[in-house]
Task: structure prediction
Amino acid sequence: MELVLVNRDFSSPRAVEGIDNIGNIDFYASYVMTEIVLNNMCIGLNPEYLEKSIGECDWILMLMEKSSMFETVTGEVLAFATIKKNKYSSHNNSNNLKGGGKQVKQKCLYVDVLCSQPGKGYGNILMNAIKRIQKAYEFPQICLCSLESSIGFYQRQGFNFEERNNTSDVYCGNQMPLMLYDNDDSGGGKRKQTRKRRMRKAIINCSTRRT
Result:
C-alpha cells in the first residue's frame, strides 16, 4: 500500500513523510470516481456532491495498491480524501467565555470527503496521513463536517465538536456538526472541560434535529 497526494497547484509541494507528491489532478479526479464505483466506497453520499468535491478540491489523498505497470501512478484505491487549503474555522476565545466569547478566525486544512473500503482500517491510515500533511504545511487545525454515523470515528482520531456559529452553518449547513482537530494541547483542564461541554451540546443538537 502507498499514499499518494495529488496536487492541483504543483508549484511548491512540501515533503510529507511517507507520502508521494504528484500532479495531474484532472486525470485522478476521473480515476477516483471510477474506483468509488468499483470498490463500493462512499455509500450514502450524493454522487453529484462527490463529483463536485473531487473536481474542486486542492488535493486528493489516496491510499492505493500501487501498480508499476504504467508511468502514471495507478492501482486499486483503498481509501481517499478530498482536501481544501485555506478554509477558515471560527471558535470562541476561551479566555473570554463569561462575556460570550470572542469569535476567533484561523486557517484550517478542510477535509471535504473521506471514504474508504469498509472494515479494513484504511480510514485510520488516511487520517494519520492527513495529520502529517497538516504538520508539513503548518495549518493550525484540521476541520471537517461529519455525518452523524462518523462522529465516533473522528472523536477517536482526536477531533472535537465546535459550537454552532455562522462559520459552521456555512460549511456544514444545519444538519452536520463542524469538528476540529488541533495539535495544540495548551490550556490544560479548562480547555478539556470546554471541549467536553461542546461535545455534549453537539450530540444533543444532532438528536434534536433528527426528531
